[in-house]
Amino acid sequence: MLLIPSxxxxxxxxxxxxxxxxxxxxxxxxxMGLELNLLSFIPLISSETNQFSSEASxxxxxxxxxxxxxxxxxxxxxxxxxxxxxxxxxxxxxxKMGAAPFHMWFPMVAEGLGWLQFIILxxxxxxxxxxxxxxTMEEAHWLILMTxxxxxxxxxxxxxxxxxxxxxxxxxxxxxxxxxxxxxxISESLxxxxxxxxxxxxxxxxxxxxxxxxxxMTHLISNSSQNTQQNVIMFMSLLSLGGLPPFTGFIxxxxxxxxLMSSSYIFLTFFLILGTLINLYYYLRLTLAAFMMNSPMLxxxxxxxxxxxxxxxMMMTLNILGLLMSPVxxxxx
Length: 333
Prior knowledge:
It catalyses: a ubiquinone + NADH + 5 H(+)(in) = a ubiquinol + NAD(+) + 4 H(+)(out). InterPro entries: Complex_I_Subunit_2, NADH_UbQ_OxRdtase_chain2, ND/Mrp_TM. The chain starts with a helix and ends with a helix. The protein is mainly alpha-helical. Helix content is about 75%, strand content about 0%. Helix 10 packs antiparallel against helix 13. The protein has helices at about 5-20, 25-45, 55-75, 85-95, 105-110, 115-120, 125-135, 140-155, 165-185, 190-210, 215-225, 230-240, 250-260, 265-290, 305-330. The longest helix is centred in the last third of the chain and has 27 residues, at about 265-290. It is built from 15 helices and no strands. The protein has one domain.
């Protein structure tokens, strides 16, 4: 969908607004960059073939406009020495990234998006708020700590009874936001490592659902008899997203847990581990449904179409890339 010229233009301005926000020297230009990013993402959401896109873009605009107004208010009160301005600014950034307890808009907006737009919402749109949040880390330390613990539990419990795949991935993104906030408490380099691996694995799963045109768990069950190789790739990607060894997603979580324990964040570590175990439950529920509820015929020798084979190659390449990056990242750290 991003191959349309207008979408390429809006994606370019979206990226420019994000870069403008994270590289600005004043909070007013930060606000301008975030507004440019917001106004560029709304046309990408809108689609004539999606009847829920208008509702999703309206919800997204109202929420982000509220957060932008809070940033503008906080930046104007910083010069007067008001103490709550740092907390107001941090709260606005947490709203923009969809962290709990300011998360209610995130699953509702994700439900009305296509998978390609969801990839942008859960990856690129988190870069600017998280980078800016690192600037207020010292003043709003306890707010970020409590938000990370809350996001871990909300992301875990919110996805248990979900049958809609986009909402399930949205709650998964909230759970991973908790881990990214925890890495920000330690170091920005660790956050960058975790974020890159999360983007690769999450985009792999979203692209799988996009090519399958799967939006409900029953879509995976009905398509499960077509290609077992794709189910194996999805199984590997979901376990990697859950952080189960020896898959890619385990490495940054392992490093994060070690650093949290050495920094005496016992309380936060407990909630992160508990949330990850619950996340693994509904990841396994997706894959087991696709494996078990299918026909008993062997499907490994079925002929594949050209498009399906290209998709399998791309998905396997992303998984192998992550596995190759894991020991390098561990040695660098």
